[in-house]
Amino acid sequence: MAQAPMLVRLYRGLTPLLLPLAWRSVSRKLTDQGVSEARARERLGQATLPRPQGRLIWFHAASVGESLAVLQLITALGEHLPQTEFLITSGTATSAELIAKRMPPRCRHQFAPLDAPAPVCRFLDHWRPDAALLVESELWPLMIVETAARGAPLALVNARLSAKSVEGWRKWPRTAGYVLGQFALFLTQNQAAADNLLSLGADPARVVTGINLKSTSAPLAEDAATVAELAAALGGRPLWAASSTHAGEEEIILAAHRQLLERHPDLCLMLIPRHPDRGADIAAMIRATGMALARRSAGEMPGAGQQVFLADTLGELGSWYAVAPIVFMGGSLKPIGGHNPFEPADFGAALLTGPHVSNFTESYAPLFALGAAREVADAPEIATAVDDLLTRPEHLTAMRSAARSFADRRQASLDEMVATLSTALSLRPAAPAGAGPDQV
C-alpha cells in the first residue's frame, strides 16, 4: 500500500489529542438520551457483545435515515449468504433504538468507534470484519484506512457527497485519492454522485451508478385499526395529503387547499409536517386562515366540519399513506432537495412534487416517465393538479397504477445490488452441506 499522504499522517497524530474532548461530548449526549455508560463506551471501541463465529460483514451508517435504508439490504444479503453474520454501527441513540426494533436476522448493533487510532483499532481487534460497507458519505479516514489494512474489502453504498464535501476534498487531491483508493466498490445513488467521486480520484473501474438505497427499503407499516378509524371519520369525504412539509411550505399548501374548497367544499387536507414538534405553530397557522382542524397529537380525527387534519405525530405515516390517494411530497417547494417518494408509491398514491428534488433526481425521473408523478411549483398549480385528479378519476387511477408499477421494481433493484456487492467484495454463498462455512 502506498505511503499515507502527509495530511492523513497529521490527522492520525492529532486525533488522539482531540479524543478526550470528542468523547466528553458524545458520551454526554448519549447519556442524556438514556444510553447506558457501558453502551456509550462502544464509541471508544469497547464492545458489549461477543464476535460471532464465522464470516462477519460490517455495515456503518451515520444516523436514522441511513440506518433504516440499509436494513433491507442486510436482510437480502442474509438470504443470499445464509451462514454469514452481520454488524451494524451508527452514532446516535435514536438510530440504535429504531434498529433494535427492526433488526434483521443474524444482526447486532453497536455504536461506531470515534475516528481515532485507539478506538478504531480496539473495535477492529474485537470484531475482525471480513468485509465493510459504509453508507452514503461516511468517509472517516482512520476507519477506512485501518479496515482496508486488515484485508477487509470496503464498499461505499448509496454513495453521495454534498457540494460542500466535494469542495473540501478537492483542496487535498492526494489525500482524497488515497482515501478513496481503499475502496473496492462505490455504489452511487445517481450519476451526479458517480461524477463527483471520479473527479476526486476514484478508480472508474470501481464506480457503479446504482439506485437510491431508500428505494429498496421495506414498505412502511400500517395499523389496521388506525386506518379504519380515519376512514370512518372521513365518512367518504375526498382526501389529499401533503407530507414531509417544511417551514415556508405549509402556507403554500394551505393556500392551495383554500382554492380547492371552492370547488370541493367537503375536501379534507391531511397535513403531515416533516418535524411534528412544529405542530403548535402549524395549528395556529391553520386557524389564522379560518379553516377548522383536527390535531392527531391531541388524539383527534377529522370531523365533518374540519377542513384540515394535522397529522403531527411520529410512526403513523404508513397508516396515513394507506388512506390518501393523492400525496404531495414536501421539501420540494423550497431548495431542500425533496423527500422519499418510494414510501407513498408503495401505497399506490398519485404523487405531486415541487421542483426542488435534487436528493431524489434519479428516483423522480422514472416516476415522471411512468406518469406516476407530476411537478407543481406554487399554490395555483397544486390546486389545479389536485382538482384534475378529483374531477377526472381516470387520471387518478392511471397515476396510482403507475406508482404501484414503480414500487414493484423494488425487489429487482435489490437483487441487482446484492449481486454487484457480492462480486466486488468476493462474497460467495455457503458451501454445500458438509463442506464447511461460507468464506470471503
From TrEMBL:
One of its GO terms (molecular function) is Kdo transferase activity. Keywords: Cell membrane, Glycosyltransferase, Lipopolysaccharide biosynthesis, Membrane, Transferase. It catalyses: lipid IVA (E. coli) + CMP-3-deoxy-beta-D-manno-octulosonate = alpha-Kdo-(2->6)-lipid IVA (E. coli) + CMP + H(+). It is found in: Cell membrane. It holds the Pfam family Glycos_transf_N. Residues 39-215 form the 3-deoxy-D-manno-octulosonic-acid transferase N-terminal domain. Its EC number is 2.4.99.12. It is an enzyme of class 2 (transferase). Pathway: Bacterial outer membrane biogenesis; LPS core biosynthesis. Its main location: membrane. Involved in lipopolysaccharide (LPS) biosynthesis. Catalyzes the transfer of 3-deoxy-D-manno-octulosonate (Kdo) residue(s) from CMP-Kdo to lipid IV(A), the tetraacyldisaccharide-1,4'-bisphosphate precursor of lipid A. Belongs to the glycosyltransferase group 1 family. PANTHER family: 3-DEOXY-D-MANNO-OCTULOSONIC ACID TRANSFERASE, MITOCHONDRIAL-RELATED, 3-DEOXY-MANNO-OCTULOSONATE CYTIDYLYLTRANSFERASE. This is 3-deoxy-D-manno-octulosonic acid transferase. It comes from Pseudodonghicola flavimaris.
